[in-house]
Amino acid sequence: AGDQNLFTSLYPTLSQQLPREPMEWRRPYYTLPHLISFKCLFDLMVHHFPSQDTEVYKTTVKDDITKWQNVLKAHNSVDWLIVVVESDAKKKNKTNILPRTSIVDKIRNDFCNKQSDRCVVLSDPLKDSSRSQESWNAFLTKLRTLLLMSFTKNLGKFEDDMRTLREKRTEPGWSFCEYFMVQEELAFVFEMLQQFEDALVQYDELDALFSQYVVNFGAGGKCL
Question: TRAPPC10/Trs130 N-terminal domain spans which residues (predicted)?
């Protein structure tokens, strides 16, 4: 969302560099951390500010971000990031120009509430300079960190829901096939992240559950 042309110009580099440096992922029942790389992105809102002209923000950008966040809320999406792209270009007309961070502060106050880390600044990402590279590297680090936090939170919720579903296996109407597809989906997620041992654990658990299913069925009792 936002400046689509700018996003299109940044996306190839972003998609190539984001997975290059894995993040340490720690799980409660693992002694050693796992290393995982992310290829997926948040919902990103990218806007370019060649200067600190507050009129641009008031007349177009603020409304654009508001509509975008309303769409996210309608889809229950909580994984988003606003990227403010700044350049050193100076406008001839310097009216309505505020200190460098003022527009970023406005965006954070208007949309980020207590989540100030959901708005980041990129400095001339298409420019070949040390300052631009430092800004880009900081952006990648922030994005990887947010992706890891989101993944950990969503995975925990998914595992809790799956555990609740498994505990209902003695209730009438419980379906092993339906449960199998749920846990296999978790295995696919681990496989996508190249966490193959975690993926295999899911199938081991399903195998044990199915063995219990067969034993109970052979004994003439409830399947599970």
Answer: 52-220
CA separation, residue 111 to residues 45, 67, 76, 78 (Å)? 12, 11, 16, 13
> For 202-219, what is each residue's pLDDT tens digit?
999 999 999 987 887 666
Regarding beta strands 23-25 and 34-36, do their DSSP bridges make them parallel or antiparallel, or are they unpaired?
antiparallel
Q: Is 99 in contact with 52 (CB distance < 8 Å)?
A: yes
What is the Cα–Cα distance from 136 to 17, expressed in whole angstroms? Answer: 10
Helix axes 176-192, 130-167, angle to 10 degrees: 160
What pTM, to 2 d.p., does this model score?
0.78
Distance CA 109, CA 107 (A): 5
The 10 Å CB-count burial string (b at 16+, else e) for 131-144 is ebeebbeebeeebb
Question: CB–CB of 200/206 below 8 Å?
Answer: no
Query: What value, to the nearest 5°, has the Cα angle with vertex 134 and ends 4 and 57?
Result: 40
Write the pLDDT tens digit of every residue in 184-204: 999 998 898 888 988 999 999
Task: Give the Cα separation of 214 and 176 in Å (integer).
Answer: 11
Long-range contacts made by residues 67-74, C-beta under 8 angstroms, separation at least 24? Answer: 68/1, 68/2, 68/43, 69/111, 72/43
